[in-house]
Amino acid sequence: MASFSVVSNISAINAQANLTATNLGLTKTLQRLSSGFRINTSGDDAAGLAVANTYRSNVAVLNQGIRNANDGLSTLQIQDGALNNISTLLDRLSVLASQSASSSSSVDRSVLDAEFQSVLGEIDREATVAGLDTAQAFSVFVSSDGANGVIGGAISQVTTTSLGVGALDVSSAANAATAVSTIASAVTTLGTTQGEVGTLQNRLQYAISLASQQAVSTKAAESRIRDANIAEESANLTRFNILTQSGIAALAQANQSNGAVLALLR
């Protein structure tokens, strides 16, 4: 049986409670639409937030790994350019040695040897500038996957001494003939170092490609958890706006209903 009271307006209390819930929903929807995130506080989805944060951390590591790999690739490209130039210098040494080795050559061997020694000096200079004057351990951190996240290798020293040409001269036909065969061996030795650099370049390029794909996929996974569905939230905004308006109207009607009870006292 319905009761009539001027002390407790149950209808108004119910309307207020529903209006409060509607206002909370409207506030959350506006927050999601304005921020673009479905999860703005831990209470929105605590478990999802933990997973999303893990994905975000992984993306940060992968992006830094890509930058590391690109930096390493730049260093290798500098060294590769130096090696190519040193290869050209060895070619010049071969030409000078071949010219001096000919017993019928009418060229002044002292002039040939002067250039020969100058080219040897240039080889050492360029090796030093490119960081190839000592053997080095090359290592680049590309991901957080433990030992598998590091790409490394050894790059051999490239100097006239390591190539075996440092003590050569072409001041005589005999010395020049010896130089020709020694330089041929040096070209092979240089090719080994070029192979080391080239292998590392290729590995880094593959690693950059993989890390880029992983970063995109991981970011997409984070987005599915953290980001707001704008279409859904837009629909929620319309729904909560309508509920707010109807709730306010219902509360006004509930407040007026107690006035009708006073008619019983007249």
DSSP helical segment count: 5
Largest sheet: 2 strands, antiparallel
Class from helix and strand fractions: mainly alpha
As for the CATH topology of the largest domain, it is f41 fragment of flagellin, N-terminal domain
Q: What is the CATH-assigned architecture of the largest domain?
A: Up-down Bundle
Radius of gyration: 39 Å
Q: What is the domain total for the residues? A: 2
Cα shape: rod-shaped
Low-confidence stretches: none
N-to-C SSE string, H for helix and E for strand: HHHEEHH
Q: What is the CATH superfamily of the largest domain?
A: f41 fragment of flagellin, N-terminal domain
**CATH top level class name of the largest domain:** Mainly Alpha
Number of strands: 2
Which strand-content bin applies to the residues? Answer: under 5%
Strand order of the largest sheet: 1-2
Q: How would you state the average pLDDT, rounded?
A: 89
Q: Helicity range of the residues?
A: over 70%
User: How widely separated are the two ends?
Assistant: 23 Å
